User: What shape does this take?
Amino acid sequence: MLPKFTLPVLAIIGFSFGVFTVVHSNQPTPIAQPIAQPADSPYPVFIAGAGIIEAQSQNISIGTPLAGIVETVAVTVGDKVAAGQILFKIDAREALAEVAVRKANVERAKALLAETQAMLVNSQTLLHLVEAITDKRAISTEEVDRRRNAYLINKAQLDSAKAQVLQNKAELLAAQTTLERLTVRAPVSGEVLQLNVRAGEFAPAGITNQPLLMLGDLEQLHVRVDIDENDAWRFRKTGKAIAYMRGNRTFKTDLVLAYVEPFVIPKKSLTGDSTERVDTRVLQALYRFDRTAIPAYVGQQMDVFIEVPADKTATGKGSGA
Assistant: This one.
């Protein structure tokens, strides 16, 4: 048997543990400190907006006008390419065969044209012979008409043969154009930002969810800033602007306005945060900065502050898009 004090002691211990648990569970949870302090505006009155870095030429998504198996890829990520340089090639065996057929058709049409020209010369000569006879009794009218009709027929055949040559040359040019389109070239000078295609893979034509290759001119970087439509009227092109690197506000750079897209569009989610408002529209302003000023990469986010004039209708610290 258990001692008579065992149950009261266990009860007291359980009660004490319950009280301890309740007391400590009601303690406020300490607020987690941010990994990096948010950026502060250096301007007394400002517009704050989220910005995303892109290439000076914008980020160009490269595709192929004709679908097919990729034969070769001539570049890698980070390569600098010149305008017109080959990026990748699509299997062109079928197109090459079509070009060969079209070339043969052109040569055949040229041979037919030469034959028709010879026939026309022959019929013209025979016609001149009968027309040169002064004594009409030496040849019948029927023979004269037959030779004249033969000349006219050969003349029409010559025009048809010439048209056939032109048609076959046009078909050859179309086949050569198709062959050329299977070689994808750089539309501008820039740097390969992303490569999503490899030799042996099937490259679909048209718009794809993921570009086959992304290209951009990185001689100078741009920041695309979303300005909330409620702040668009406060925006001034002459206002100063500064950008802070997201995650480390010690990296900052002054911005120079490149241009403003004068079309207000629905806002796209940049951060993916559930608290970010996307049920609004934004005016997009693009600012440029020296890529050597901060260690920035295309696609990176920045906190941008734009100075606005302080007047009676524009008061307060500012707001963000």
Notes: The chain has three domains: 46-56+218-307, 60-89+187-214, 93-181. The radius of gyration is 39 Å.
